[in-house]
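Q: Structure for this?
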Amino acid sequence: MRRKILSVLLTAAVLLGLIGCGNGSTVDTGSDSKAESGNVNTEADSKQKEYAQLVVAFRTAGAIPTEQAIDTIEEEINKITRDEIGAEVELMIIANGSYVSQMNLMLTGDEQIDVLGASRSMMPTIYAAEQIRPLQELLDEYGQGIKEVLGEDLLSCGAFHNELYAIPIKCDSACGYGTFALRTDLCKKYNIDAESIDTYEELTEVFQTIKDNEPEMTIVGSGSAGQSFLQYSITWDNLSDNYGVLENHGQELTVTNLFESDGYKEYLRVIRDWYVRGFISNDITSSTESSATIMKAGNLFAYATANKPGIKTQEESNTGGIEVEICQVLPTFTVTGNIWQWTIPTSSKYPEEAMQFLNLMYTNADVLNLITYGIEGQDYVVKEDGTIYYPDGLGATTVPYSMQGMNWSFGNEFNGHVWYGNAPDIWEQTAEWNKTGLVSEAYGFVFDSGSVANEKAAVQNIYDQYRMSLECGLVDYEEVLDEMNEKLYAAGLQTIIDEKQKQLDEWAESNSKN
Amino acid sequence: MRMSKTKVLTGKKKKSTGWKSYIPFYLMALPGLIYFFINNYMPMGGLIVAFKSYSAKKGIWGSDWARFNNFRYLFMTNEAFNITRNTLLYNVAFIICGTFLAVTVAILLNEIRSKKASRLYQSVYLLPHLVSWVIISYLAYAFLSADTGFINNTILKLFGGKVINWYNSPKYWPVIIVIVYLWQSVGYTTIVYFASVVGFDRGYYEAAELEGAGTWKKIKYITLPLLKPTIITMVLLAVGKIFYSDFGLFYQVPMNAGALYPTTNVIDTFVYRGLMQQNNIGMSAAAGLYQSVVGFIIVIAANLLVRKIDKDSSFI
Amino acid sequence: MQSKSSRRFNIFANAFMILGVIFCLSPLVLLLVSSFTDSNVLIRNGYSFYPEKLSLEAYRYLFQSGTQIMRAYGMSFVVTITGTCLSLVITTMLGYSISRPGLPGRRFLTFYVFFTMLFNGGLVPTYLMYTGTFHIKNTILALLIPNLLVRAYYVLLMRSFFQNSLPEEILEAASIDGASKLKIFYKIAVPMAKPIVTTIALFSMILYWNDWQNGLYYITTKTGLYTIQNLLNRMVQEIQYLSSNATVGGSIDLSGIPSATVRMAIAVIGILPIAVLYPFIQSNFAKGITVGAVKG
């Protein structure tokens, strides 16, 4: 008994002590007191003027910086924003894996977020729940810079039902589909010239050569764990999900069922052939490693990726230094990608300043570099050729602050530094690249799936059931494809297709596509 | 005074004099009751979002009514039957196998003469429960991987059998899932039964030994009957969750492999997969409500059944 | 004759138990060995009890953020111990009181507790309530209170135990001797209930130790409040996310992380404290007070 009283008292003491610590800086995320927690003393003079406290939320790949590191960056950014737009920022950086769920919680709780980075999957929901604001007026008044940077075409990708709700990002929008990274050493050994590979047939021959000579090796893998080769083998405009697409690179505005199309069947034929010949691993449906990592481990010859300027450097860093050759067998193609965009939530307290901040981020190289790469000298150093890299002795996980892996997401990466390993003129190259290839007629159209949420949920379950084994060649598609289509239609696929067609027609009319 | 106390202890209700004397009990119960009110009852109102078309601007209470629209996706397809069947069958299998194994292990642990050995066994059995499902899925993969898995590599070598692509063959998974479930949970469930067994009055056993009963007889006529209330309690508690599944077990362990859906897709994974892209709180609340309502009906029925057998063991 | 049958039984029981040990332990041994395996070897050859090449790289990677891990461990200990103590006190009091036969409203109260196991408002309303009404976000209370502090399951187990395994005669004897209800509770009932109290304490400890969800949803800015499971879970999620989204437009240096083996090392670190402490807690399962005296 005494022991029990003791333990209760002990508990109470510990608890009180901790509440004390906790309460000292108890924060409702988004409340204004947080912004200068580390630097209150030095800010005495600037505190006299009332600054709008903006909460800027985005996600990160990799380690989340410590509070102190974030505070330092915020302070540097604030030095600029105080003068330019009369506001201070608080950066809310959330891990990739939990970003969507945490953001949804916060938005549902109406917590203050002024600038929100939204992924493509988030958009229909937050739009339908009226959690984001329409942006046209704000853009017209405070977003001149953004307009100039993005241009009208790109800007139109942010419109839902012809109203602007999101600011798209400017990045590499043309996607080089049908691209494969091949191990350089094996290419050299068997006299394979990657550059000359232009079709799936030629690629299959190359794979066969390797297979004959290296029987133990897995020949080709998909790009990411859990994805099939379809991810990078696209010859249709998928209109944000694969349920109802525009075949033939979107040259016509008729929405059809992807899974009955010739393009899809052709893809399946190729992959099934690869599997039967033994090019594809049996574990592909359950692997948890990306193909680059598997190549690094030594047992893979090639994997799928998407072409763009600088891809070789990127993949070689993913494989941990194993050199690769790039070949592309499908046309480059541009669609309304929208993997990422910037929005201003309904819960924002300072929407005008928020738009001004976005404008700043899109146009001001200092702000962009601060938020992306950190502070010069501390988080990165500039090399002789003008590119930047981590300071000596530091790496991706030990540097105080670096959003390097997400540099494309801050709106206008073209305005920022160039990362080491890429050609110094990479941005010019990318701009040129973006002009190449086919462009879908539906470029600029964004599908709002809110009204078919039920059908999407049902269809998703069915598609997921067949997806991996079908699209990695593990089953004979001739037997299975009809079955899958039957179930998809039963789950409401036609409803989704019809809805897409309807929205597409409306969009085409109001944008007078002639 | 004493008379009324005795009457009270035999379970008869006594009105006015009894009431005040129970105040200490009510006070003791208060913190827990308040907690449940805050943690469980207050948020329950939020279930109403299952019937609404949620809009952040209007908030939960102000949003428009959607009636049963959010429930459609649960019943729209043939999947509805599959996922319900899977959920129920697995839970029944878990309850039966799990209880049987846990009770057996608990009794054996108690009978083993070396207390040190008994403690060691118990510690080891508990360990699997401490591992997260993600890691368990990797360990399962170590055994079941098509190319490098332990099973395929040993079957090949020892019996010369055909290599099986486990993650592509749904028919084996009911057994696999039950085995993994037992591995993860038996050590944990055993603890409750063990705690009960350990508390039984030694007097009964000594009396039985004097009359020449062997170990099996002692277990059959003393231990098991004494355990009955505990077993009933545990089973009832499990039955209440019969429409829920352990998400990690059904999502992570099969590596989210589509080919395995027919035998591993349960209500919870179906909802997650359908809504993962969308995060629609109306629809996920609808799923939760469906599971709760059906589970509720089943549990009330089970409790009424149990009341007939042993009145004190039921929860109503 | 008796000792022969019980000896045979003992051998049988031990054999069965040892089989169980092999069954439980082999995957865990695999886990441990994998965490010390070279990452490339692991991916190439799969998981094995005799890997080609051993390496400490996974642990080296984890302890790079050494102070963060230490701090998270500390946080886990504080939260687990505090939470378990509080939880025990409240749960035991509630379980005991609703087990008292003749308590007016006993059925209602039991059902009140049981009902919470059936219906749940869901994550969003709970979250909204705790952050909007009670403002516990980013405080340690968020790690202690939501869904963990009192569990209906434990309360009902306690109730069941107090109801069935506690001889009323002793309690009656004590009350006839003039002891107050509260004294009977903590001086007699609780000590006799040592097995179940220890059980609930253990369950509670595991629950608190393993929880990563509260940290995920409620701790967004005060990263110092991460518990070890929360931290480790974030790391695993990151690695999984990076593996599944390999070329999302940018150059994410996944190659620097020995991803396969780090996940194993993470699991080992997560289990270690409880695995080590459990044998010490076990002594409390000692048999309760012999009740033979009263019977006589």
